[in-house]
Fold:
Amino acid sequence: MRPRAAGIVLILCGALTACGDRIPAAPGPPEAIGFLHVLQQPLVITYEIDATGHLRSPVTQTISTQLSALAGEPQGRFVYAARGGWSSWQSAVDGSGPAVVSYAPDPRNGTPSQVSEIALGLQPAYSCPLCADAGKWVWLRGGPHRVHGVWRHAWSTGRKPHRTHTYVAVAVAGDGQLGPVSQTMIGHDEDPGEVVVDVRADVLYEAGNIYFPEPDDPQGGIQAYAIEADGSLKRVGWSDRCLDTTMCEFCYASPLVTARGFLFASRNDYHSPPTVCSYQGLKLKPLNALDLAASAAEAFVPPTEAKPALLAMNATIDGGGVKREELRVFAMSNEGDLRMVYGEELPDRITQLQFHPSGRFLYAVDAASRLRAYAVGGDGRLSLFMSGDHAGGSMAITLKDVGAADR
Structure:
């Protein structure tokens, strides 16, 4: 777990200026304002973020070979990690089960230092020779007082494969200590198990059930749940509409991002063209629709409602049978309407987006593991100032001057 500022880091840093568009070390000595942590299994790479948003030469460490995702949280105090995964039933029996870990950044160089770890206590029930993964983390998000995750568990009966998705809520104390844990099954077999959490409002949005074990469970569409104080879920809304169109019986919407009580979700309906649908409030009132396909999005919400929220998302545009990938930024009004303020065609699909907590910078990772850094203008327009190959992965941002009193 000891950070290394030489060895492989020197190889990386030497390559940064010698390998085309890999990320160069930032010029000059502007003061550091935070850290960008990137998981490139088995390494965690920590870049210092200076006041211009540039990333300085990284420090690299091996924390655990079983980390599968990183997540930050709004205050920038901690980095959370999802640990564990079963490639087969036997590895699940022999190896360690899933766990959530919290880290605090070292104030000197930002490298994550473990604060707390808590195991979920999940164990496999059956072998699964037909499953690619017997167990894996598929989503992780940090909030002010809770870590949210989704764990997928696969098994088989006879020659029929099955899978479940479990929503995991782990309480976080002010000093980063984890526990207790709440677990709720949210999807079975064909259900996608796709969620987004409004971490400030404690609301979970889930792609609607395709398989429904209870007679009163709604089918398809999209659902909203209030996250109770103990981490359990209470359904408060459901919709199977996108603007003025009803989704097909087994079709659903994949939640993408939330901002100021509005939800944006990608409709999965084979009867209709790709659409990003928006909803208002916990009852999921259908609001608007964008004629594009999207699979990743992130929001920056200013503390004052006098300024519009910004939504960054990938967009897959199908023009004449030729698909192209774009990064788009929208300004959202207080009524939930979107106005596009920036668009850029990219060679690969964006898989992850991360705004700096100040809203001044945006970091994007694409499917080719390319990391891009943008300055965000007052009008929401982006200016690319750094780009690096073989530098992308699961991301989290911490702030440098968050003191112990804030933890």
The longest strand covers residues 160-172. The two ends are 23 Å apart (CA to CA). Residues 70 and 158 are 36 Å apart (CA to CA). Helices lie at 8-16, 89-94.
